[in-house]
Protein 1
Amino acid sequence: MPLRLGVKNNYLHLLEACIQSKSLTEAKKIHQHFLKNTSNADSSVLHKLTRLYLSCNQVVLARRLFDEIPNPSVILWNQIIRAYAWNGPFDGAIDLYYSMLHLGVRPNKYTYPFVLKACSGLLAIEDGVEIHTHAKIFGLESDVFVCTALVDFYAKCGILVEAQRLFSSMSHRDVVAWNAMIAGCSLYGLCDDAVQLIMQMQEEGICPNSSTIVGVLPTVGEAKALGHGKALHGYCVRRSFDNGVVVGTGLLDMYAKCQCLLYARKIFDVMGVRNEVSWSAMIGGYVTSDCMKEALELFDQMILKDAVDPTPVTLGSVLRACAKLTDLSRGRKLHCYIVKLGSVLDILLGNTLLSMYAKCGVIDDAIRFFDEMNPKDSVSFSAIISGCVQNGNAAEALSIFQKMQLSGIDPDLTTMLGVLPACSHLAALQHGFCSHGYLIVRGFATDTLICNALIDMYSKCGKISFAREVFNRMDRRDIVSWNAMIIGYGIHGLGMEALGLFHDLLALGLKPDDITFICLLSSCSHSGLVMEGRLWFDAMSQDFSIVPRMEHCICMVDILGRAGFVDEAHHFIRNMPFEPDVRIWSALLSACRIHKNIELGEEVSKKIQSLGPESTGNFVLLSNIYSAAGRWDDAAHIRIAQKDWGLKKIPGCSWIEINGIVHAFIGGDQSHLQLSQINRKLEELLVEMKRLGYRAECSFVFQDVEEEEKEQILLYHSEKLAIAFGILNLKAGRPILVTKNLRVCGDCHAAIKFMTVITKREITVRDANRFHHFKNGTCNCGDFW
DNA sequence: ATAGGGTTAG
């Protein structure tokens, strides 16, 4: 080094040169020399050295030096605050600002933009508002820089009224001020206001720049305001903004969000420069629009061409594609790839992975991954809770929900959209009530999606009138609300109410969708409304241009079959424009059982076996048909055939919620704490029932045992256990609600009627299909189920 | 400029 080190001015010159060239190694060298050769730290050298570290983005080193400087200048304070405001941590900037005040250093107009940027980064509204009052006191509020920073702060924090007030108060508004206001509107979804502001600024002679456009494009996309989007695109072309990668990506994303994937792709293809954001936006656009093939192809291209490295955003989009395709093996490969890349497994990507596992049906892997996630947030909990419900484990979902409450993470709206279906599944009314209360407290109870889930919850928990109350009080219903309410009436056997609601829907000029008709037809079938079913099935395609799907046909076969038009149902199946599947044959088989049509039952059963009988339900149906006809050998053969198929019988399980605790019973289960009381109660009931004329339906028992033993087996069916438990634990006269995973057994159906007479209680059983409301010795299903 | 969890259907 040619300079005579140790001389202060030489250091200063050298440092200034380094600041220009941003050379960190030089900086460190000089710093070392300086430490060695000077005993007393000179403030101006320390100032320059700090600035040098800042210019090299060495915030930690700069801070260490800064803290040694006895009286740093305002400029240096501003620079170090600026460094924290740009690179974080944001609270570092705010802390520095406060210590500056504390030391009696007066902030200037350059201080405020930096510290306010930190406040908006943290959404630290209270700090920002206080800092605003300081700026006022120092007479800086009317400064263009400061005021623009304040507008930006309030806009980013969503306090648009205050942003607007300050913005209006400004005498000179440059393009930056306008952009702050516009970006604020954009951030909070006020697309029209943002576009309006762009017009207004031009009227005032301020020309929108590329930041203006970039700031407004996200909200245009979100609002799917394609017209605005095209106008903005035109403006970009005229001003040649569209060559830039940021504007190009913004436009691409806007078109993708407006479902104009061809336009988006066109822009992507002609972009001169593409970065990882452009690729991610394009891939994400495909995934959101259900174009998985294109998304995966583009991702492969990105990897093969080695164009840019995949980011967590890219990987997240591809994982979502795997989830939608339930392509588990690709999902697992990606997981490995992410680990191998050493890519940041941030919480967003972790949640996407978790959800991918849940949606691909490997809930155990999802739970394992969830357990190991650290930290977890409300999204992680929501994902695993709804994952459990989707995979048929509502009890686990509620137990994780309890853990969530203990963990101190507040459930949000989406969490509750997973919790409510869990309550529905379990018919856990107490949990449902609590959830509803929580939703009211949090102000979520008016949300349409939440109300839809509440309607479903109340109707599946047996409280159809509460469901209707929620429906009535909604201020914005969508088609899902109507569908949920219609099927709610349906499963309660209230077919006329379902039809009435459907007519209300039409009278309001709303358009039913394909699911509305499934709900409606299913309601008709539960209530034996054959004529109405036929009418609306035909009207569906003729008047509403909805092509019947298999699901609609299943409902139709159900309607015809239950009502005794078994041959017509068979004819209906043969005339369908597509190949019948197992589910529709099962519906017919069920009709054969009700109407004891053995011949057709056998034929249908053969069809089912040739297709591969997905579930044991069909074997049970056929063997029921045989046993009802006294053909025990044939019934036995069916059970053997079932074993040959390797199908195990799903155990019947019933449960009842008492004081918020769900008690589950499996047929013949002898493990419950109150077992002896339950048994005594059942024996007691049996005596009374027999006195009233009950005879055990022994044809439902397939074991080769004595009649008396059959009676005992039937007595310990899960639904009877749960009811006895309810009688023991609920006050006299209180109604009982029991839920069963399969269809209620015929013997139990008969027995429960007697029980309502003996106990003078209403007993409701929700089975896999519908509600059975037992009262005074009858069931509202009319014995057809 | 890109990103995670979600309601209805036998």
Note: The radius of gyration of chain A is 35 Å.
Protein 2
Amino acid sequence: MDLLEDLEKSPTSFIKDDIIIRSETALDRLYVLTKGWVIAEKMSHADSRPIVHVFLPGDIIGFSELPFQKTSYQARSRTSGIMCPFPSSRLSRLFVESPRLARLIFAAVTIERAEQEDRASQFCRNNAAAKLALFVLQTLDRLKLLNSNLRDQFQCPLTQQEIGDLVGLSSVHVSRTFSQMEANGLIQRHKSFLKVKDYDSLAEMSDYRNRYGSLNLDWVPAHP
Amino acid sequence: MDLLEDLEKSPTSFIKDDIIIRSETALDRLYVLTKGWVIAEKMSHADSRPIVHVFLPGDIIGFSELPFQKTSYQARSRTSGIMCPFPSSRLSRLFVESPRLARLIFAAVTIERAEQEDRASQFCRNNAAAKLALFVLQTLDRLKLLNSNLRDQFQCPLTQQEIGDLVGLSSVHVSRTFSQMEANGLIQRHKSFLKVKDYDSLAEMSDYRNRYGSLNLDWVPAHP
DNA sequence: CGAACACTTGATAAAAGTCAAACGACGTGG
DNA sequence: CCACGTCGTTTGACTTTTATCAAGTGTTCG
């Protein structure tokens, strides 16, 4: 617990549209995101700007850039929020100081990797409604992890253009598809809020499984 | 070194189309794949069968299923080959016995995660040639890691149907797009061999970066 | 209150999917 | 060693889905 708190000892606040990690630079630290939404976007030459990942409160920003000399994307905040930077050497020491905590972090990264696989295999299939369904359910369940009074809706600070850049659709088609899903009683929108009206149907059409619902951490023994 | 060799002490051979991991079962071990190709496919109800990942020699099969109670996909061999199973508790012990090796494995998983992000963000965009270009380059560079006499071509044991299931295209469109890429001098095919004729063009059209080309493992100190 | 900015709607174009048939390679068994 | 059947690939015709362009309608925020 002390070690975990140590990672969050220097909270820094940021405003909307801050650049948190610059593209093509060396990254020598990680950030615990404690409040706010941050997106990782590729600075591609084309006008489209693929969004590689959406970071939500509780996530650690920078893992996927750690083993490389230069960052491949930039991280930009979409809301104001708070993050806690710590040097990557701190993570390295953790493997010696607490093998148990290292295993937990390893498990966390592995879970995220599984979610990433879910996205890769779903988003590459051309069904706009299924893509959006997966985005909505994954985001809702991930937000619930750190915000337990969340039930069936959340505030989404991403524009439809950005959602399209994430799942691979044009903003126009995101709009149309969301409208149709709303007409079919699957979701409901109000301002920037997204409400899940029919979780089961959304889950079935996107072949979704809640990765946090049936964990097995037997191999992370309580007392090492 | 002893610890690494320990993981490969019980080599098992498999034939083509063996089921290595069954879907919806508990997984208590991992497999070092030393020879052959293995695919991870979702047993979806529909006739399409999304391919979540392709394992190549040197990969460890099962990481992404480790923290869950049940596997979400099945692993099936596409060639004959050799793998070395070891219990997941072995991985757990590794975190105590060798923090340095644990960090290296952590780094390896992180690199794979970055590649997965590359796939997710590219495959979700609707450009058949770019999808296939990314698949070809990623596969070639990954194969080169353990087979250094590989230069510009490799034997691909996947059918066009399977390649389509991986990148999200119909088999018909894979055929057409490959033919066109061949006509444009980007690749060349002969039997099941795929030859890269114009690496740079393929890399540019798919926004590819070789993840193993510019690693920074400073945070994995040589002497912990 | 007004000016960005985001979203919606319609018309049209491009990309990829589907169906079906033909072709080719490959392995098996006579 | 050849005939045959299976499986994978190619090709053509047509359909569906999504992208693009452009104009109009909110919405938000200084």
Note: Chain B has two domains: 2-97, 126-206.
